[in-house]
C-alpha cells in the first residue's frame, strides 16, 4: 500500500517580480523557499538588492534552485524575455507574484507632472499587466499540476498581483498611485474571468501599511503614513512576511475556489 503525502504545497515553479531587498517581494521569495518550493525565479530593477535576496534564500535553503534575472517591468520587452528565460531554465511557471512597484511623489493632481503620472502607472499598472500577460501566455500552454487534494481540479497556474489598500480607499496626495492600484484590482478581476476556463486563478492582495523600504525610506513618508497606522484597528504596521503568507495561500491549491479576489491585509484599516 502506498499513501502519497505531498511534501510541499508548491511542487511547481515560482516567479516573483520586485523581489529585491527586504520588501514584500523578497519576503514572498523567502516564504516560497521555506514552504518547500525548490524552483524560484526572482527579478527586480535593483541588481544589488536582488543579489541580497538571492544570498538570503541560498543561505537558508541551499536545496532551492534560483534563477536571478534583473530587469525593468515597465520595459515592453522585459516581461516576455524574463518568462522565456524561466521556461528555458525550469520548464514552466506555476505561481507568479507581481510585486514590483513605486510609491510616487506625494503631490496633488494639479502639482503632478505627466511624466510622474506615467512613471507610476507604467511600473505599477502597465508593468503588472505586462508581467501577468507574459505569465498567462506560458500558463495556458502548459499541463496542469495535480492539487494537494486529489478530489480537487488540477491547477494550470496561479497569479497574485500586489495591489494596495489604496486601490480600495484613497489617501491624500497620491492620485497616480491610488489609481494605479485600483487598476491592478480591475485587471485582476477581468483576467480571473477570462482564464477560469483554463484552470488558472488570478487574485490580488491589498496590503495596508507594511514595514518595507517603501514606507521606511525617508522621514517625509514615515510622517505621512503615521495617521494611517493610528486609524487601523490593529494600530501597527504589518510585516512583509504577513503579506507573503496571504500571497502563498492564494498561490496554493488550498485556494482552489478563490478567484478574482482582492484580499486585504491591512490590520483592519478599510473596515473603519
Ligand atoms: N509597503 C507598503 O506599505 C505597501 C502597501 C501596499 C502595497 N504595497 C505594494 O507592495 C509592492 C512591494 O512594495 P514594498 O513595500 O515591498 O516596497 P519595496 O520598495 O521594498 O519593493 C518594491 C520593489 O520593486 C522594485 N521596482 C521598482 N520599480 C521597478 C521596475 N520598474 N522594475 C522592476 N522592479 C522595480 C524595487 O527595486 C523594489 O525592490 C509594491 O507594488 C507596493 O506598491 C506596499
Automatic annotation (TrEMBL):
GO molecular function: oxidoreductase activity
Classification via SUPFAM superfamilies: NAD(P)-binding Rossmann-fold domains
InterPro entries assigned: NAD(P)-bd_dom_sf, SDR_fam
Chain segments annotated as coiled-coil in the UniProt record: none
Alphabetical list of Pfam families matching this protein: adh_short_C2
Keyword field: NADP, Oxidoreductase
Entries under Gene3D superfamilies matching the protein: NAD(P)-binding Rossmann-like Domain (3.40.50.720)
CDD domains membership: SDR_c
Family: Belongs to the short-chain dehydrogenases/reductases (SDR) family.
Name assigned to this protein: Oxidoreductase
Lineage summary: Eukaryota, Fungi, Dikarya, Ascomycota, Pezizomycotina
